[in-house]
Amino acid sequence: MHLNDSEVDAACHYIRRHMDMHSWWPKEQPGEAKREFELMCGLALSLNVWCDRWLDAGQRKKLEKSVRG
């Protein structure tokens, strides 16, 4: 999945909502993932890197469905 610039706001909203609702989200090192997210959420290019690093295939698929649904 590769987000484009017009999808960044919706993707960031989705990711923030999941982080707020689930302290364990994403599954690996959520604290570090959250700190990196705040630095990388502004541009599609960096957000795609973040998603590839921190989200598993199922999480990426749900994000894509939410953004493009």
Structure commentary:
The protein is mainly alpha-helical and 69 residues long. It has one domain. 70% of the residues lie in helices and 0% in strands. It contains four helices and no strands. The protein has helices spanning 8-21, 30-40, 44-54, 57-68. α1 (8-21) packs across α4 (57-68) and α2 runs antiparallel to α3 (44-54). It starts with 7 loop residues before the first helix and ends with a helix. The model has no long low-confidence stretch (mean pLDDT 95).
Computed structural class = mainly alpha
Any idea what the radius of gyration is? 11 Å
Work out the helix count: 4
Unreliable runs? none
**Strand content bin:** under 5%
Mean pLDDT: 95
Note the gap between the termini: 13 Å
Give helix and strand order, one letter per element, not per position: HHHH
Number of strands: 0
Largest sheet: none
Shape: globular
SSE inventory with pairings:
Layout: H1 8-21, H2 30-40, H3 44-54, H4 57-68
Helix pairs in contact: 1-4, 2-3
Could you provide a short overview of the structure?
This protein has 69 residues and is an all-alpha fold. The chain is built from 4 helices and no strands. The mean pLDDT is 95.
Distinctive features:
69 residues; mainly alpha; 70% helix; globular
